[in-house]
Amino acid sequence: TNQWFLPAVRGDIPPGCAAHGFVCDGTRILVFGGMVEYGRYSNDLYELQASRWLWKKVKPQAPSNGSPPCPRLGHSFSLYGNKCYLFGGLANESEDSNNNIPRYLNDFYELELQHGSGVVGWNIPVTKGILPSPRESHTAIVYCRKDVGSPKMYIFGGMCGCRLNDLWELDIETMTWSRPETKGTVPLPRSLHTANVIGNKMYVFGGWVPQSAGGEISAPDGEWKCTGSFSYLNLDTTEWIGLISDCQEDKSNLLPGPRAGHCAVAVGTRLYIWSGRDGYRKAWNNQVCCKDLWYLDTERPLAPSQVQLIRATTNSFQLKWDEVPTVEGYLLQLHADSPVPPVAGIPGTGVPETSVLSSQGGCSLHQSPQSLPSIPYPEMKVDHPSQTNNLIPNNVQAALSSSSKVEGKEKVAALENKVTQETMKNHADATGFKESNAPSLSPVYTSSAQTSANVGELHDLDKQSVNPDASVSCTVSSTQTMVTQQAVKTESSSTNGAVVKDETSLTTFNSKSEAAETACVTPSTRVSTGQTNDSHSSRAPQRPPAPVKTRDRRWYDVGIFKNNSAVVSQFYLLPEETPNINSKTEGADVPDYRLLKKQDLFPGTVYRFRVAAINGCGIGPFSKISEFKTCIPGFPGAPSTVKITKSVDCIHLSWEPPASPSGNILEYSAYLAIRSTQLQENPSQLVFMRIYCGLKTSCIVTAAQLSNAHVDYTSRPAIVFRISAKNERGYGPATQVRWLQGKATVTHS
């Protein structure tokens, strides 16, 4: 949301302090030392439980082989496993805080943590090799190579009367210090900079650097300046790569300004930089505090999860996919089984690449707008916080999941079936996403106001009908056919079903090899023998397959979405001269959708979907392909709002009736996935037993029936139910329920 908030903390709230040590371990934060006031330093340790916003002052045991750490500031405090590593800092030799006698430290401690909360005590490890020289305002990070598995701590830079740019390595397993040899251009000596690890790189930004050209200052009161230079160290090859040089001009304010004493944190593959102070001399009255937030995208995002189906109608799909952290949007594409004619005479438009700052980077740094429902794209410069950029084309609708409690129970709110009429602001300048091998910068504006870009809200169901779990595996036939036998086996195929949430009506799909993992859609299946009972089945009319030319097998853009869900009723047709766009991850432009014609979805038609995440470095790889079919008119929808209530010796299932375009609902059927020898051979082929058939919208599942249940392990262990409704046309699609370890998760398939 890009919104700051001030939590209501309680407990042993620590006094304000500067230059302290700070680590985050899950939902708890540990703070050690720092300057409480000028000349008075601290060696207190505080723990914040962020899940409860509760502060607690903790008292570790003193080390058995020495004294505990003395009060200090400017030290490093690094977390690895269940231990924090403390190195160096600045102490005051004078007992009088007004008479500050600085003493630089190079002592080394480890602090053992208790699991979840609390600490054990300090220890002074016995180390080998030469200790780094005393220093403060340095950085320390811990990195462990995946193939080697030996964690190492790296200390860089700092201050000991003059700025430093030396690199030290500590092998944590052997407790051996060393000075690794590096390649490339070493960054200028600096202090009060930041260093963060993303992947196998240590990113170093900002800090105080010497004003003199030589980099070394002998006089303690020599001049220095803040820098905005930016480099990274490849920790596998120990090679320095410069991204932004100290002398690089930034007349357009596309880069973070020079600063020191700022903070930086890595979230996934994104690096956030906040605040700091700027100044060119030591005098405090020449320094300016920064209040801006920036982020750096270091690589293209990972592929999202498979597209999942929430609801299908005769001419639309409600879709979702799992969120990818720290992305700015998602590109959703579809592929139609029936050939879609290209549109002649509609030119596609591209967007210029982002500003090139260096040829070495492979990352992109941005500043994004304040109080916006959407985060702008890297090619866009936002001049005012009130500017918004809608990432959702006018043929789709996005939704957020939230909870609204009424009298202690969560209500269900259906999505509005309307479409957004907003279009993307400055679209011709903002919708092109090209892979950039160099960093580009833009700011993150923040706000305290709540904003929302969603058209409708998708609320969680009753607590017995909660969020989706993950995917289950099953495949179905392409006709809506129910059978009378108790054991219903799904038709053989290589597809896997994705499970999603909310009251959805899903339809059957054709299993194709291209859809390697697609969403399963209905319990309406043929028995493996092919025998069916006509009185209990209704076969949907089949459209004869049309010949498809190779050039027609294209992926068409549905649009770019800010959130991870959408209602899709149309897609964009490509100009005839546009080549096949199967490789948008290679830096192809996203066209200007305003210049493209749209095509409605057809009833009873199979569509394949894939989605890719977008950040400042470009469009990432696409997800695995999902395949869904729009509903055939006349059949009932899927039962909704399924709830599971557990009693001592049975389970009670209940559901809401679906819409029925062709007469009243004649009956409901409920099925339970059961154990079978076929499941051992192919876990993707679920075998179902019908446990209820009748007019009531509820049923009881006995303990005897549950004793035969198959436990599905495609994600978390769950028992799988399916419920479908029948009208005069036949059985419609089913709602699938995954019951997780004593609580129900409503999902649909």
From TrEMBL:
GO terms for molecular function: transcription coactivator activity. GO terms for biological process: chromatin remodeling. It comes from Donacobius atricapilla. Pfam families: Kelch_HCF (PF13854). Residues 511-551 are annotated as: Disordered. Its main location: nucleus. The lineage of its organism: Eukaryota, Metazoa, Chordata, Craniata, Vertebrata. Keywords: Kelch repeat, Nucleus, Phosphoprotein, Repeat. PROSITE patterns: FN3. GO terms for cellular component: histone methyltransferase complex. This is HCFC2 factor. Residues 544-633 form the Fibronectin type-III domain. SUPFAM superfamilies: Fibronectin type III (SSF49265), Kelch motif (SSF117281). It is found in: Nucleus.
